[in-house]
Amino acid sequence: MTIECESRDGVEIFHLTGRFDGSSANDAQKVLLSKADFTPLRVVLNLAGIEVITSAGLRAILALVKKVEANAGKLAVTGLSTSTREIFEISGFNRIIPLQASLESAVAQVGEV
Amino acid sequence: MLEFLPIVLAGLGLYFMGVSGIRSSLQQVPGIRFRESIGRASRHPVLAAVTGFLLGTVTQTSIGVAVIFAGLIARGLSTVRQALPVIAWSNMGLVVLVFLNNLPVTQVALFLIGFGGICANFGFGGRFRGLMPPLYSLGMLLYGLRLMKDGLYQLSAHPQFESFMAQLPASELLAFAFGALLRIPVQSSSAVALIGITMYEGRIFTEQKTIMLFYGTSLGTGFAAYFLTSHLKGEMRQVALFEAIVNLSAGVLLLGFFYLEKLGHFSLLEGHVYNLTGHIQSRLALVFLLQQSVCVAFAYLLMGRMSGILEKLAPRTVEQDLSRPRFIHDEAAYDIETGLSLAKQEIKGLVARLPDYLRSAGCESSGGRAVPPVAVQHQSFLAVINELQSFLAVLSDRRLKSHLTSVNLLQVQRRLDLLCGMEEATFQVVHQLQGLKPSPAVATIRHNVIESLDALLLTALDAFGGQQEDIAILERLTSSPGEVAHRLRQDYMNAHEDLGHEERAAVVAIITQQERVMWLLNQISKTLEAHLAPTDSVCNPLPGENPS
After folding, report:
1. Alpha-carbon dihedral of residues A69, A73, A78, A82, nearest 10 degrees?
2. N or C, which end of chain B is more exposed by having fewer CB within 10 Å?
3. What residues does A74 pair with on adjacent strands?
4. Residues of chain A with pLDDT under 50
């Protein structure tokens, strides 16, 4: 799995590509937590390139949620496939992270003061 | 010559009916409390010996006692270490019946048949009512022996039989083999010993052959214990193997002693017994006592050295390992605070097991670790839950010192109830998922349900760590699950035309159970939160309690 970072309007965007599963989740979590180290903490996760997400991937995202909330930051997720959206809904992750239809709307939501 | 035959047959029939009657009557007596009492008694060395002796006396089968303890071990009421002395001493309990035979058998037998039969039929005997059927059966057994003795005596007096016996090789070894073989169908060494004594009294056997028949029963007990319990596994098998090894060793040793004494013309065991009494029946009973004492001595000699060997011969099963509580134990129930703390740890440990249910349904994050089948996990989980419920019941019977302790206990009980429901729902989800045929139509929902539940259960485990933020996240993740479940159900009922009816029904059932897990997790998060909430009643005594 690869993670590419982009800054836009004071928001850090992480573009994730590949399989977000047990084999990649630990490393991905380390990368996400280390890069999400600025104030104010405004992050968008773009999952458009994700083929499969498993519980390990969800747990890595949860770690990021905890960090963002601890720093009174904001986080949004975008680029979800039908299957990924379903797993977010079944697991209740849509209740702790706003799911946005487009990257622009996600950046706009997170960037709001 | 054949006049004796109906008498021997009648005796044999009464005898076997007596043996089976005693056994089946006693199987109905032990209830849960009885089993728990003997389980507790096995924890004290002296009580263990007394318990073993009494159980051996009552059941007249040491293998039966081993099987009873196999059951107690399976339920976690005893351990292999605690069971071995009981099983060892049960061998000694068998002696009682042989000594009882020295009483005026006919009168005792007829009295038992009359008294036991009348009481059993009319329900007399008050709290000892349950003992009447086995007493009646014991009477039948003894009267059967008496008849056999009479019949064999008639047979032995017949000249044709005498000439027939004279042609047989006078080998004690054959009597030894006969004892070993007879032990297997008769299922009681003492019962075979009584047959031997009866055959001696009927002049079929010499004293030496009767003794060898006794010794043969040890070998027979060893083989019977080995083969009759071959269906048992792990620790349950270990206790049966112990009984087998002890009896086989004793049988071989006594056989060696017999021939050493006979061929060497010096006094070892029998010689000393011979000097004790001139009364032949008493002497035979003493030889049987000596034989059983050798079994007990062997058992104690081997006990310390056997645990490693038994573990190798019958390694503990995964199910047995999983069925044991990790934290709670009987002694902890004496202190409520300690007990509650351990009960919480036990519950947390049980929550940690649930993700493995999903691993057995194909959850990818098993890390290559093999997990037992979900049915095994489920049964083991229920066994621990059962122990935990009994443990909490004992705690609630104790004198609760404060309001906080009372609230704490109720919270733990509530958490346990919720956990039971959550386990059941998780098990149902996995069960249904495993029943789904692998097809592209259900692949996505299968993957999503498994991975979602796994993430939630692991998050619940974090929440059990007691951190406020973890509990809050769990509560938010699991709040109002009905909406999503309803939408998904509608989706799978109305769309997905590629699904057959059975698949559709299974998917809907899976979504419903998954919704139930979410709801229960949410309730659990509330009990965890309540535990964190500050309370003013920490030191408040319960009404009527002394605050000191």
Report:
1. 10
2. C
3. A42
4. none
Report pLDDT digits (tens) over B418-457: 999 999 999 999 998 888 887 777 888 889 999 999 999 9
Contact A55 B444 (CB under 8 A): no
Rounded CA separation B143/B159 (Å): 27
Distance CA B56, CA A69 (A): 68
Q: Does A27 touch chain B (CB under 8 A)?
A: no
Give the list of residues 6+ apart from residue B209 with CB closer than 8 angstroms, or none. B172, B175, B200
DSSP-assigned letter for residue A3: E
Q: Are strands A11-20 and A99-100 parallel, antiparallel or unpaired?
A: unpaired
Token pair 């249910």: residue: B357
User: According to the model, what pLDDT value does residue B12 have?
Assistant: 81
3-state class percentages of chain B: helix first, strand second, coil last, to nearest 5? 80, 0, 20
pLDDT digits (tens, 9 = 90+) for B504-520: 888 899 999 999 999 99
Number of domains in chain A: 1
Nearest to B94 by CA among B48, B64, B59, B67: B59
Using an 8 Å Cβ cutoff, are B280 and B207 in contact? Answer: yes
- Distance separating alpha carbons of residues B284 and B192, to the nearest angstrom: 13
The full set of domain ranges for chain B reads: 4-316, 321-532
> Which residues have C-beta within 8 Å of that of residue B487, sequence separation ≥ 6?
none
The 8-class DSSP code of residue B548 comes to: -
Structure tokens at A81: 């496939």
- Mutate which of B354, B357, B364, B479 to test chain A, going by most A C-beta atoms within 10 A? B364
Residues paired with A99 in a beta bridge: A77
Q: Is the predicted pLDDT of residue B532 greater than 80, yes or no?
A: no
Query: Inter-chain contact A83–B514, Cβ cutoff 8 Å?
Result: no
Distance from CA of A15 to the nearest CA of B (A): 22
Residues in chain A: 113
Burial of B148 (0-12, 13-18, 19+ CB in 10 A): buried
Range of the domain at A98: 2-111
Report the distance separating Cα A31 and Cα A33, nearest Å.
Answer: 6
- The helix (H) or strand (E) run that includes residue B78 is none
**What is the domain-level CATH number for residue A104?**
3.30.750.24
Query: What residues of chain A lie within 8 A of the CB of B479, using their CB?
Result: 92, 95
Q: Are B265 and B170 in contact (CB under 8 A)?
A: no
- Dump pLDDT digits (tens) for B87-143: 999 999 999 888 887 777 788 889 989 999 999 889 887 777 777 888 898 888 778
Task: Tell me the CATH architecture of domain B321-532.
Answer: Up-down Bundle (1.20)
Structure ipTM over 0.90, yes or no: yes
